[in-house]
Amino acid sequence: MKVLLEENEIPEHWYNIVADMPNPPHAVLGPDGNPVTPEALAPLFPAGVIEQEVSAERWIPIPQEVREIYRLWRPSPLHRATRLEAALGTPAKIYYKNEGVSPAGSHKPNSAVAQAYYNKQDGTKKLVTETGAGQWGSSLALAGQMFGLEVLVYMVKISYEQKPFRRSMMQTWGANVVASPSTDTQAGRDVLAKDPDSNGSLGVAISEAVEIAAQNDDTNYALGSVLNHVLLHQTVIGLEAKKQFEKVGDYPDMIFAPCGGGSNFGGVAFPFFADMASGKSLRLVAVEPASCPTLTRGHFAYDFGDVAGLTPLTKMYTLGHDFMPPGIHAGGLRYHGDSALVSQLYNEKLIEAQAVNQLETFEAGVEFARQEGIVPAPESNHAIAAVIREALACKESGEAKTLFFNLSGHGHFDMASYDRYLAGELTDYDYPEEEIQAALDRLPKVDEPV
Amino acid sequence: MKVLLEENEIPEHWYNIVADMPNPPHAVLGPDGNPVTPEALAPLFPAGVIEQEVSAERWIPIPQEVREIYRLWRPSPLHRATRLEAALGTPAKIYYKNEGVSPAGSHKPNSAVAQAYYNKQDGTKKLVTETGAGQWGSSLALAGQMFGLEVLVYMVKISYEQKPFRRSMMQTWGANVVASPSTDTQAGRDVLAKDPDSNGSLGVAISEAVEIAAQNDDTNYALGSVLNHVLLHQTVIGLEAKKQFEKVGDYPDMIFAPCGGGSNFGGVAFPFFADMASGKSLRLVAVEPASCPTLTRGHFAYDFGDVAGLTPLTKMYTLGHDFMPPGIHAGGLRYHGDSALVSQLYNEKLIEAQAVNQLETFEAGVEFARQEGIVPAPESNHAIAAVIREALACKESGEAKTLFFNLSGHGHFDMASYDRYLAGELTDYDYPEEEIQAALDRLPKVDEPV
Description:
- 2 copies of one chain form a homodimer.
- By secondary structure, the first copy, chain A, is an alpha/beta fold.
- The first copy, chain A, has 2 domains: 17-63 and 107-228, Rossmann fold, CATH 3.40.50; 70-105 and 235-441, Rossmann fold, CATH 3.40.50.
- In chain A, 42% of the residues lie in helices and 16% in strands.
- In chain A, the strands form 4 sheets. The first copy, chain A, has a 7-stranded mixed beta sheet, sandwiched between helices.
- In chain A, helix 6 (135-146) links the parallel strand 6 and strand 7.
- At the A-B interface, helix 6, helix 8, helix 16 and helix 18 of A face helix 6, helix 8, helix 16 and helix 18 of B.
């Protein structure tokens, strides 16, 4: 069963959770230990985005121009997974929002389109960003094309070479894609001087993108997760879902979403948090890889957003900025830290977190594909695994809970990972406690402002 | 703008064009020159399918069990391509039906699901088929899984090795995929005896699949295009589109669809033909590759469906069954013949045909992706190219025609082709008249029954 909305039901406002949080997130600190001012962000981001990053307004209007682009694929359908329910023999009801219907195949364009719009408004000519496997890069390529902005993507070299199809997609949408490390930037040249055959890393690609944006007046930087404004833009997902649940006269008892940087979880869960804030009983569950257990095994501390320690410091759950997660197949969840908003809520026990192992996630994804048809992205499989666990618990207990998760994207560009899973070549990786402890011991020492 | 339908608006009947054709298609002939009887098809197909293959009933009920599976993605949205219209500066209105929303990414599951259902009804345990690049094989894998049937796919070896992701998708849905030629069958062993390193071909893969189906009582064969029942199943596309046009108070002046075997064109165009039969003025345009110009340069004659000449003889437009189209990037359109229904209508000038070159199709596909977001399948790009031609003609003439095409699928598994196009490595191929003539001269000599 699918629950559809008409285009005029695309939300007219994003929901800003800051307005309903018992305590706002901690200030972001600059290299001098003082809170970062909005002005300091101006070389990288447009005014509209900076304003949203620090706003405490509950409702922020979605510009008509952004809604026009959303209309190409939004509202996304809410599905009830009746075949999966039957296969599990559970009395639970399972719903999912399908964000894989966007042209880029995930929820990422919800923020990319907004960011492109505010940059266009500000007179930006060119957007620059980094991408690993390519989900964010392709979303920004699409969004830039929609508003007539040039897009330059630094793509981690090993992905550029081994996963060429996301690169082709970005180029189809007119973006310029450069393998990182490159000779374009000082950051890239430094890496190449030490190791001419470097495979690159997300950390290096970020440095290259930021360097280009900082040096060029008409060029801005765009980030696909973690920051407040990104999670804000993603709330269209949860806001649509609330209307869809209303339409069928149901309401979730538990909401599940994969959680890497937090844009997926925040997007689907935050609008429901507003109801919790007004007394509704509801459980919000962030699902992360057992091999990168930021919320479940990390510390709530000030840390850098990047490996090199070039970004401002954010109070967040972190495994230490130099923590290197293993090469799991859900690339979007391989991040040492987490959004400040998600971290703050988790620290106050307003939301929950679960860690699942890689094999369990692929087993869940294959079961989902065989019942519901759609082959999910490996990131989405984390939410599916947690939902299946809960549905089977309901079977034991006889409870008819309403479970809801965000199917953040399809797996069409991840079939090599399914291939390895089906061939029995994937393994689990449970990080040894001493390695996690060692990375946490390297956290920067920060005097928190009072 | 998208025009949506609710699930209860999925059609309850398929439309059988035979009921409205001025002349029915010519009889299919067996090796003895006599018409093939329904009984002769029984070793390969289930009763429900054979009945549809020869039916002249206008409306054939869609079983509830089939509609239940259609609901996983149907009704598919009808989009109006307003950004593309604006970019072309045309007064024409451009609409498209998006069949890429199916889990397999194309319109093919519309028939695969129906065929799996009738086989299940008939007690079939296993379906066997062939696939080239994998669109049909993955659709049948999906459909078989939905009805608990085993699926065995003979995949042309060169595709099996070079395009592994469609194979992974079939395996994710539980199908068994074998590289063809294989040692499973006499047909495969014969080829391997002559050439142990054979890359395989669709012709050989068909022979392997048919051999397995003919030899095993519980195993049937399934074909993804050309046959009457396949085009019948695809009419859900056009039937939904008619409701969607009604909803917005518009109606197409011209309908375009890519045409290889005919399932795509028949699916979208036939239900509108019913209106032409009752006097409505409307143009239906089949768009084919200039390098495989079956309708535009072939003959209307009895010919075999396969290279080896093992199938019954069908009166159709053909380039000769041993015509080898070049390795263009729209694999679904590389077929020497065409559906008997489409051929008959074209011969009576009730429908039209256009041929477009490969470079023009990719240019159209990239323009579409940059305006509308979705990256189309190379097959779909043929329809887009023809629509853009017509929209630009409208710009010249000032006519505000309503143009409609079927976006038969997305291009997520075809990015290597876009890559080659963007790198300037693709070429056009206009078949020399003498080569086409030579293939036509090899057409079998058939005494047509009166």
